[in-house]
């Protein structure tokens, strides 16, 4: 698979590069665009302040420009938290998208979007302050209505960005379970 992997609001941290290496070791081609142009942040608050300064539209523009040279190949869009939100937006707008792998995040769904059985897998903490139960229920139903084939995996007690070993949210057991399931998902696309 050709995978476009987007980073979280912490920026293109070592954990994102390690995730890309893990995916490459499983036989996938992976790109990790740096939407923050080299900036990384230790706290969510710092990252969100930077994100707000750049603006959502500019970040989406950067993501589209990063994906455009490869989209004809049929990309799997993937991302961590903010990156998952961006990946979802791009995948739902790309009729050649092969799949969508969401780690720690989702996004609003634009009106009028429809996909034909797009495989989607979401991995998220339970509870997650950024992905509440009510939000996830509504998101899941809406994704189904637009034609996505969605699987949701919840990890009780894990922190929001539990796959990043460099952050306090890290949960080794939940991270390994996530990667085991995600790699199976990608293998079957």
TrEMBL record:
Hydrolase is among the record's keywords: yes
Span of domain Dienelactone hydrolase: 3-187
GO MF annotation list: hydrolase activity
Keywords: Hydrolase
Alphabetical list of SUPFAM superfamilies matching this protein: alpha/beta-Hydrolases
Protein name: Dienelactone hydrolase family protein
């Amino acid at each position: 698979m050709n995978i476009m992997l987007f980073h979280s609001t912490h920026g293109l941290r070592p954990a994102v590069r390690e995730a890309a290496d893990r995916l490459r070791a499983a036989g996938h081609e992976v790109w990790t665009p740096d939407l923050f142009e080299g900036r990384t942040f230790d706290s969510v608050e710092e990252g969100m302040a930077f994100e707000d300064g750049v603006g959502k539209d500019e970040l989406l523009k950067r993501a589209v420009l990063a994906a455009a040279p490869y989209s004809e190949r049929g990309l799997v869009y993937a991302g961590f938290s903010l990156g998952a939100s961006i990946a979802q937006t791009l995948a739902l707008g790309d009729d050649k998208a092969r799949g969508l792998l969401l780690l720690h995040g989702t996004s609003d769904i634009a009106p009028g979007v429809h996909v034909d059985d797009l495989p989607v897998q979401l991995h998220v903490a339970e509870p997650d302050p950024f992905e509440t139960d009510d939000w996830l229920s509504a998101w899941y139903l809406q994704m189904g209505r637009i034609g996505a084939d969605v699987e949701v995996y919840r990890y009780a007690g894990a922190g929001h960005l539990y796959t990043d070993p460099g952050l306090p949210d890290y949960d080794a057991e939940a991270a390994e379970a996530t990667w085991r399931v995600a790699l199976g998902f990608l293998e079957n696309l």
